[in-house]
Amino acid sequence: MVNWIGIAATNMAIAVGLGAFGAHGLKSMVSAQQLAWWHTATLYLFVHALGLLLVGLLIQFRYATQTTAWLLQIGILIFAGSLYAMTLGAPRWFGAITPIGGVLMIMGWLWLAVTAFRLGHLET
Predict the structure, then answer these.
(1) How would residue 28 be classed by pLDDT, with cut points 50, 70 and 90?
(2) Helix 4-24 to helix 66-87 angle, to the nearest 10 degrees?
(3) What are the tens digits of pLDDT across the range 45-71?
(4) Which residue windows are transmembrane per the record (predicted)?
(5) Is there a contact between 15 and 45 (Cβ–Cβ < 8 Å)?
(6) Residue ranges of domains in the chain
(7) d(CA 20, CA 43)
(8) From CA 30, how far away is CA 19, in angstroms rounded?
(9) CA distance to 10, 11, 26, 78, 79, per residue, from 65 (Å)
């Protein structure tokens, strides 16, 4: 089984590091628009890393499935990764994949909801 708690904790450490780099290292090197992309990527990375931590715990207790975790993790990588890449100079059209990451994150949360409703039905 994949260690989702460890992956979530790694994501959170990366979010803190990239957030600090954006706040202190990039400020004078990129435009305000690029800095906004960086901040958005870091916010979504951090929030979804915390969510992934919760999902990892829920998986341990069999209240969630690996599908939820995979959807969230791949969504994080595509969403935040594409925004970070554009900030660092990737072509602007590269942002066309950003919504794919967002959709995957939404699908992850919806899959968690479906799983929770199914389990709730079984417990009654």
Answers:
(1) confident
(2) 20
(3) 999 999 999 999 999 999 999 999 999
(4) 42-61, 68-87, 93-114
(5) yes
(6) 4-17+32-123
(7) 12
(8) 15
(9) 20, 19, 38, 21, 22
Contacts of 1 (CB under 8 A, 6+ apart): 59, 66
Closest of 46, 45, 65 to residue 4, by C-alpha: 65
**Crossing angle of the two packed helices 66-87 and 32-60, in degrees rounded to 10:** 170
- CB burial of 23-61 (b: ≥16 within 10 Å; e: otherwise) equals eeebeeebeeebbebbbbbbebbbebbebbbebbebbee
Q: Which residue has the tokens 């089984």?
A: 1
| Residue in the structure block whose two tokens are 């059209």 | 93
Residue where the block lists tokens 């409703």:
117
DSSP 8-state assignment for residue 30: S
pTM comes to 0.93
Q: For the chain, give the number of residues.
A: 124
